[in-house]
Amino acid sequence: MLLVASFLVAFGTYFFLKPCNIAAGGISGAAIIINSIFHNIPIGMIMMGFEIFFFTLGIIVIGPVFGGKTIFCSFSISIIIWIMQNMYPNVKSFSNDTLMQLIFGILICGAGMGIVFNKNASTGGTDIIAKIINKYTKISIGKCVLIPDITVAIFATIVFGVDKGMYAILGIILNSTIIDRVIISLNTYKHVAIISSKGEEIKNYIMKELDRSATIYSAKGAYKNDENEVITTVLDRKQFLRLKEYIVKIDDKAFITVNEVNEVLGEGFSSMV
């Protein structure tokens, strides 16, 4: 997942943002600015220089696990861009519309960055600063990305002009929003409540096949005044689909309610710390 996410960030940066000189934050944006001034220095090499400094900072402040994942992602992005630059040295814009280039580039990069942050890593560079801010303030990671990236956007305005700078600021805002949306989407779970005559089989399936636990409530039906068990559990999307298929096979008259939850804390899910 981290390698796929790294490829998305590299692809969006090199093929969409770089041709239009859109420095939409991060070390990739800073590298684009420097490359536009010093054409002989490859973007990938510039990014590697930044990475060495920032990942050291990440290891010290956040920890070695985060640092190790970040090293992998940041160097993967740099190497992939370097390869792309050697294979396609004179890459041109897909569209003459700079706004379209920006939107597609940010969509691709933001999706990749959201996956990376969700795996408790970062793409390196200024994203490490964002992760550190997030650790101590609990502000959403997307909003934390805004803070260092705005600095890059200011330099982009100086180097590329007001128009490019405005595009960069728009890109940063879009990127922040997409990162948060991707993380929310990846952490969406299903809170399921089930009433069934095959309750024992369903409980065993949840625990043994899905490797999840469940909570049991006693309930009384208003229509027939009969006693029932309500089985509640929290599952990811794939687990819910498997459970639903199983329930349909053994009891197609079961009553199921499903709610989406955006965050689950505790054993088996995200840490509360």
TrEMBL record:
It comes from Clostridium fermenticellae. InterPro entries: DUF2179 (IPR019264), N-reg_PII/ATP_PRibTrfase_C (IPR015867), UPF0750_membrane (IPR051461), YitT (IPR003740). Residues 212-266 form the DUF2179 domain. GO terms for cellular component: plasma membrane. Pfam families: DUF2179, YitT_membrane. Gene3D superfamilies: 3.30.70.120. The chain crosses the membrane at residues 40-63, 100-118, 139-160, 166-184. CDD domains: YitT_C (cd16380). Its main location: membrane. Keywords: Cell membrane, Membrane, Transmembrane, Transmembrane helix. It is found in: Cell membrane. This is YitT family protein. It comes from the Bacteria. It is a multi-pass membrane protein.
